[in-house]
Design a protein that fits this description.
Length: about 120
C-alpha cells in the first residue's frame, strides 16, 4: 500500500471536516488507543493515522486527492464511503453537509468481505 505523509507544515485554508464517531469503541480506539483484540495492531495504527487525515482535511475533495486513502463508495450503501486501512481492512464513513461545513461520521472498521 502506498504511504501517505501529512506533516505539520501542510496548511489548509478554510474550515476542517467535523469528525464524529458512531460508537464509543471507535472513539476510545482513536483518542486513548484502547485496542480491542479483534483489530490487529497495524490496523489500529493506520486507523488513527486516517482519522488524523480526516481531521486535517478541509473538505471531502481533499480525501479524493490523497489516492493512498483509497476513498471509494461502498456498493449497495449509497451514503457510505470506504477508506483503505491495511491490506484487507477498511474504515466505513458517511459524509453529511451541514450549515457549518461537512460532518464525517466514522462507523466501523471492517474486513474486505464485510465492506462489499
Amino acid at each position: 500500500m502506498t504511504s501517505c505523509v501529512l506533516d505539520d507544515t501542510h496548511s489548509f485554508i478554510g474550515n476542517r471536516l467535523d469528525v464524529r464517531f458512531s460508537n464509543r469503541e471507535l472513539e476510545r480506539l482513536y483518542e486513548h488507543n484502547e485496542r480491542p483484540m479483534k483489530y490487529p495492531a497495524e490496523v489500529v495504527q493506520t486507523f488513527r493515522r486516517r482519522i488524523r487525515f480526516l481531521e486535517a482535511a478541509t473538505n471531502t475533495m481533499d480525501l479524493e486527492l490523497l489516492t493512498c486513502l483509497e476513498h471509494a463508495a461502498v456498493r449497495g450503501q449509497k451514503d457510505m464511503r470506504s477508506i483503505g486501512l491495511t491490506s484487507g481492512w477498511h474504515l466505513l464513513i458517511s459524509e453529511e453537509d451541514t450549515l457549518l461545513g461537512t460532518m464525517v461520521t466514522v462507523h466501523a472498521i471492517v474486513k474486505d468481505h464485510e465492506a462489499a
